[in-house]
Amino acid sequence: MKTLRDIRPRLTxxxxxxxxxxxxxxxxxxxxxxxxxxxAPNGLAERHDRPVPILMYxxxxxxxxxxxxxxxxxxxxxxxxxxxxxAAHGYHAVTLRQVYDYWLKGSPLPQHAIVISFDxxxxxQATVAMPVLRKLHWPGDLNLKVxxxxxxxxxxxxxxxxxxxxxxxxxxxxxxxxxxxxxxxxLWQEVHGSRVDLRRMFHVPVAFFCYPSGRYDAHVVDxxxxxGYLAATTTHYGLARPSAPYELNxxxxxxxDGVPGLAHKLEALAP
Length: 271
Fold this sequence. Notes:
By secondary structure, the chain is of the alpha/beta class. It folds into 2 domains: 4-43; 54-269, Glycoside hydrolase/deacetylase (TIM Barrel). Helices cover 42% and strands 14% of the residues. It is built from 9 helices and 8 strands. Strands 1, 2, 3, 4, 5, 6, 7 and 8 form an 8-stranded parallel beta sheet that branches. Strand 2, helix 4 (96-105) and strand 3 (113-120) form a beta-alpha-beta unit. The model is unreliable at 1-9, 11-17 and 31-45 (pLDDT under 50).
Protein backbone atom coordinates (compact mmCIF):
# COMPACT_ATOMS: atom_id res chain seq x y z
CA MET A 1 0.00 0.00 0.00
CA LYS A 2 1.24 3.47 -0.83
CA THR A 3 1.99 5.82 2.05
CA LEU A 4 0.28 9.16 2.46
CA ARG A 5 3.51 10.73 1.23
CA ASP A 6 3.29 8.69 -1.95
CA ILE A 7 -0.33 9.60 -2.76
CA ARG A 8 -0.25 13.31 -1.90
CA PRO A 9 -0.73 15.71 -4.87
CA ARG A 10 2.44 16.95 -6.43
CA LEU A 11 2.64 20.44 -7.98
CA THR A 12 5.43 21.10 -10.42
CA UNK A 13 6.89 24.54 -11.23
CA UNK A 14 5.09 24.43 -14.56
CA UNK A 15 1.80 23.63 -12.88
CA UNK A 16 2.28 26.51 -10.41
CA UNK A 17 3.03 28.94 -13.24
CA UNK A 18 -0.08 27.85 -15.05
CA UNK A 19 -2.19 28.57 -11.98
CA UNK A 20 -0.90 32.12 -11.48
CA UNK A 21 -3.29 33.89 -13.93
CA UNK A 22 -6.29 32.20 -12.30
CA UNK A 23 -4.99 33.10 -8.84
CA UNK A 24 -4.53 36.71 -9.87
CA UNK A 25 -8.09 36.74 -11.25
CA UNK A 26 -9.50 35.44 -7.95
CA UNK A 27 -7.54 38.08 -6.02
CA UNK A 28 -8.82 40.86 -8.30
CA UNK A 29 -12.41 39.67 -7.86
CA UNK A 30 -11.97 39.66 -4.09
CA UNK A 31 -10.61 43.22 -4.12
CA UNK A 32 -13.49 44.49 -6.27
CA UNK A 33 -16.02 42.79 -4.01
CA UNK A 34 -14.44 44.37 -0.94
CA UNK A 35 -14.51 47.84 -2.49
CA UNK A 36 -18.12 47.38 -3.53
CA UNK A 37 -19.03 46.38 0.00
CA UNK A 38 -17.48 49.56 1.29
CA UNK A 39 -19.71 51.49 -1.12
CA ALA A 40 -17.12 54.08 -2.13
CA PRO A 41 -14.23 54.46 -4.60
CA ASN A 42 -10.65 53.61 -3.63
CA GLY A 43 -11.78 51.60 -0.63
CA LEU A 44 -12.90 54.61 1.41
CA ALA A 45 -16.11 54.14 3.42
CA GLU A 46 -18.90 56.51 2.42
CA ARG A 47 -19.09 59.54 4.68
CA HIS A 48 -22.38 60.61 6.19
CA ASP A 49 -21.58 64.17 7.17
CA ARG A 50 -23.43 66.13 4.51
CA PRO A 51 -24.67 69.44 6.01
CA VAL A 52 -28.41 70.05 5.99
CA PRO A 53 -30.33 73.35 6.09
CA ILE A 54 -32.83 73.77 8.93
CA LEU A 55 -35.30 76.58 8.26
CA MET A 56 -36.60 78.51 11.27
CA TYR A 57 -40.15 79.85 11.26
CA UNK A 58 -42.35 81.33 13.97
CA UNK A 59 -45.82 82.72 13.19
CA UNK A 60 -47.37 82.04 9.77
CA UNK A 61 -49.54 85.15 9.61
CA UNK A 62 -49.41 88.80 8.66
CA UNK A 63 -47.89 90.86 11.46
CA UNK A 64 -50.47 92.86 13.44
CA UNK A 65 -49.88 96.60 13.66
CA UNK A 66 -47.52 97.51 16.47
CA UNK A 67 -46.47 93.94 17.25
CA UNK A 68 -43.13 93.67 19.07
CA UNK A 69 -41.25 91.46 16.59
CA UNK A 70 -42.84 91.84 13.15
CA UNK A 71 -40.03 89.94 11.40
CA UNK A 72 -41.14 86.75 13.17
CA UNK A 73 -44.37 86.81 11.12
CA UNK A 74 -44.37 85.23 7.65
CA UNK A 75 -47.46 85.84 5.54
CA UNK A 76 -49.34 82.66 4.52
CA UNK A 77 -48.95 83.39 0.79
CA UNK A 78 -45.21 83.85 1.25
CA UNK A 79 -44.94 80.61 3.18
CA UNK A 80 -46.87 78.67 0.54
CA UNK A 81 -44.71 80.21 -2.19
CA UNK A 82 -41.54 79.32 -0.34
CA UNK A 83 -42.61 75.69 0.02
CA UNK A 84 -43.51 75.55 -3.67
CA UNK A 85 -40.09 76.99 -4.54
CA UNK A 86 -38.38 74.34 -2.42
CA ALA A 87 -40.32 71.53 -4.09
CA ALA A 88 -39.67 72.93 -7.57
CA HIS A 89 -35.92 73.06 -6.86
CA GLY A 90 -35.63 69.47 -5.70
CA TYR A 91 -35.79 69.93 -1.94
CA HIS A 92 -37.58 67.41 0.23
CA ALA A 93 -38.53 68.08 3.85
CA VAL A 94 -37.46 65.57 6.50
CA THR A 95 -37.44 65.48 10.29
CA LEU A 96 -34.42 66.23 12.43
CA ARG A 97 -34.47 62.59 13.54
CA GLN A 98 -34.02 61.49 9.93
CA VAL A 99 -31.04 63.82 9.58
CA TYR A 100 -29.54 62.56 12.84
CA ASP A 101 -29.97 58.91 11.77
CA TYR A 102 -28.31 59.71 8.45
CA TRP A 103 -25.33 61.28 10.20
CA LEU A 104 -25.03 58.58 12.85
CA LYS A 105 -26.08 55.41 11.04
CA GLY A 106 -25.98 56.26 7.36
CA SER A 107 -29.76 55.89 7.02
CA PRO A 108 -31.16 57.03 3.64
CA LEU A 109 -31.74 60.75 3.19
CA PRO A 110 -32.99 62.65 0.11
CA GLN A 111 -30.25 64.38 -1.86
CA HIS A 112 -31.65 67.84 -1.07
CA ALA A 113 -33.03 67.20 2.39
CA ILE A 114 -34.25 70.17 4.42
CA VAL A 115 -35.80 70.50 7.88
CA ILE A 116 -38.65 72.99 8.29
CA SER A 117 -38.76 73.94 11.95
CA PHE A 118 -41.27 76.07 13.82
CA ASP A 119 -40.57 77.59 17.23
CA UNK A 120 -42.72 78.07 20.32
CA UNK A 121 -46.12 76.70 19.28
CA UNK A 122 -48.58 79.02 17.53
CA UNK A 123 -52.05 78.22 16.22
CA UNK A 124 -51.07 79.24 12.68
CA GLN A 125 -48.48 76.48 12.58
CA ALA A 126 -51.33 73.96 12.74
CA THR A 127 -53.98 75.84 10.77
CA VAL A 128 -51.80 77.34 8.02
CA ALA A 129 -48.42 75.60 7.83
CA MET A 130 -49.61 72.03 8.24
CA PRO A 131 -52.07 72.06 5.29
CA VAL A 132 -49.39 73.53 3.02
CA LEU A 133 -46.85 70.89 4.02
CA ARG A 134 -49.43 68.10 3.88
CA LYS A 135 -50.08 68.83 0.19
CA LEU A 136 -46.40 68.12 -0.41
CA HIS A 137 -46.42 65.09 1.91
CA TRP A 138 -43.80 66.83 4.04
CA PRO A 139 -43.36 66.84 7.82
CA GLY A 140 -42.52 69.83 9.97
CA ASP A 141 -40.49 70.05 13.17
CA LEU A 142 -42.25 71.80 16.05
CA ASN A 143 -40.02 73.14 18.81
CA LEU A 144 -42.80 73.24 21.35
CA LYS A 145 -42.89 75.33 24.51
CA VAL A 146 -44.94 73.40 27.07
CA UNK A 147 -46.85 76.49 28.21
CA UNK A 148 -47.98 77.09 24.63
CA UNK A 149 -50.18 74.00 24.80
CA UNK A 150 -53.40 75.61 25.93
CA UNK A 151 -56.96 76.13 24.76
CA UNK A 152 -56.57 79.59 23.23
CA UNK A 153 -53.10 79.09 21.75
CA UNK A 154 -52.22 75.62 20.48
CA UNK A 155 -54.51 73.07 22.13
CA UNK A 156 -53.29 69.52 22.62
CA UNK A 157 -55.68 68.09 20.03
CA UNK A 158 -54.01 70.22 17.37
CA UNK A 159 -50.59 69.00 18.45
CA UNK A 160 -51.89 65.43 18.11
CA UNK A 161 -53.05 66.34 14.60
CA UNK A 162 -49.56 67.56 13.74
CA UNK A 163 -48.06 64.31 15.02
CA UNK A 164 -50.57 62.32 12.96
CA UNK A 165 -49.43 64.30 9.92
CA UNK A 166 -45.84 63.16 10.49
CA UNK A 167 -44.51 66.16 12.38
CA UNK A 168 -41.76 65.78 14.94
CA UNK A 169 -42.15 67.32 18.40
CA UNK A 170 -39.01 68.71 20.02
CA UNK A 171 -38.62 70.50 23.35
CA UNK A 172 -38.34 74.27 23.71
CA UNK A 173 -38.48 74.46 27.54
CA UNK A 174 -41.59 75.08 29.63
CA UNK A 175 -41.69 78.88 29.89
CA UNK A 176 -39.06 80.04 27.35
CA UNK A 177 -36.55 81.71 29.72
CA UNK A 178 -32.98 82.76 29.01
CA UNK A 179 -31.36 79.54 30.21
CA UNK A 180 -28.01 81.22 30.78
CA UNK A 181 -29.49 83.32 33.62
CA UNK A 182 -31.48 80.78 35.68
CA UNK A 183 -30.24 78.74 38.64
CA UNK A 184 -29.47 75.03 38.37
CA UNK A 185 -32.84 73.86 39.67
CA UNK A 186 -34.74 76.03 37.21
CA LEU A 187 -32.39 75.04 34.38
CA TRP A 188 -33.06 71.33 34.99
CA GLN A 189 -36.79 71.92 35.27
CA GLU A 190 -36.91 73.78 31.97
CA VAL A 191 -34.64 71.39 30.08
CA HIS A 192 -35.44 67.99 31.54
CA GLY A 193 -38.94 68.84 32.75
CA SER A 194 -40.09 69.98 29.33
CA ARG A 195 -39.07 66.66 27.83
CA VAL A 196 -40.87 64.74 30.57
CA ASP A 197 -44.01 66.84 30.12
CA LEU A 198 -44.13 66.55 26.33
CA ARG A 199 -43.52 62.80 26.39
CA ARG A 200 -46.28 62.36 28.93
CA MET A 201 -48.70 64.56 27.00
CA PHE A 202 -48.10 63.24 23.49
CA HIS A 203 -46.31 59.87 23.85
CA VAL A 204 -43.52 60.78 21.44
CA PRO A 205 -39.73 60.46 21.93
CA VAL A 206 -38.84 64.22 22.18
CA ALA A 207 -35.21 63.51 21.29
CA PHE A 208 -34.11 67.04 20.36
CA PHE A 209 -33.97 70.43 22.07
CA CYS A 210 -34.15 74.04 20.90
CA TYR A 211 -32.54 76.83 22.95
CA PRO A 212 -35.02 79.65 23.67
CA SER A 213 -33.98 82.76 21.74
CA GLY A 214 -30.81 80.87 20.89
CA ARG A 215 -29.25 81.59 24.29
CA TYR A 216 -26.97 78.92 25.71
CA ASP A 217 -23.53 78.32 27.16
CA ALA A 218 -21.44 75.28 28.15
CA HIS A 219 -23.45 74.81 31.35
CA VAL A 220 -26.73 74.79 29.42
CA VAL A 221 -25.35 72.35 26.84
CA ASP A 222 -24.28 70.03 29.65
CA UNK A 223 -27.83 70.06 31.06
CA UNK A 224 -29.22 69.28 27.60
CA UNK A 225 -26.87 66.31 27.26
CA UNK A 226 -27.71 64.98 30.73
CA UNK A 227 -31.42 65.26 30.01
CA GLY A 228 -30.98 62.71 27.22
CA TYR A 229 -31.36 64.88 24.13
CA LEU A 230 -29.46 63.71 21.06
CA ALA A 231 -28.87 67.19 19.62
CA ALA A 232 -30.02 70.80 19.89
CA THR A 233 -30.74 73.67 17.53
CA THR A 234 -29.62 77.28 17.86
CA THR A 235 -30.37 80.56 16.13
CA HIS A 236 -26.87 80.75 14.63
CA TYR A 237 -27.04 81.25 10.90
CA GLY A 238 -25.78 78.50 8.63
CA LEU A 239 -26.11 74.85 7.73
CA ALA A 240 -26.46 72.17 10.40
CA ARG A 241 -23.44 69.86 10.61
CA PRO A 242 -22.84 66.64 12.57
CA SER A 243 -19.59 67.97 14.03
CA ALA A 244 -21.60 70.17 16.43
CA PRO A 245 -24.77 68.22 17.33
CA TYR A 246 -25.64 70.45 20.32
CA GLU A 247 -25.06 73.66 18.35
CA LEU A 248 -26.92 73.05 15.11
CA ASN A 249 -27.22 76.13 12.91
CA UNK A 250 -30.47 77.19 11.31
CA UNK A 251 -31.64 79.52 8.56
CA UNK A 252 -34.07 82.08 9.94
CA UNK A 253 -36.87 83.07 7.56
CA UNK A 254 -38.13 86.60 8.14
CA UNK A 255 -41.27 88.47 7.16
CA UNK A 256 -39.29 90.52 4.65
CA ASP A 257 -37.71 87.54 2.87
CA GLY A 258 -40.51 86.35 0.62
CA VAL A 259 -39.62 83.74 -1.96
CA PRO A 260 -36.58 85.63 -3.35
CA GLY A 261 -35.07 85.98 0.12
CA LEU A 262 -35.46 82.31 0.88
CA ALA A 263 -33.95 81.37 -2.47
CA HIS A 264 -31.00 83.71 -1.97
CA LYS A 265 -30.25 82.36 1.51
CA LEU A 266 -30.24 78.74 0.41
CA GLU A 267 -28.29 79.36 -2.77
CA ALA A 268 -25.66 81.32 -0.83
CA LEU A 269 -25.30 78.52 1.72
CA ALA A 270 -25.14 75.67 -0.79
CA PRO A 271 -22.09 73.52 0.13
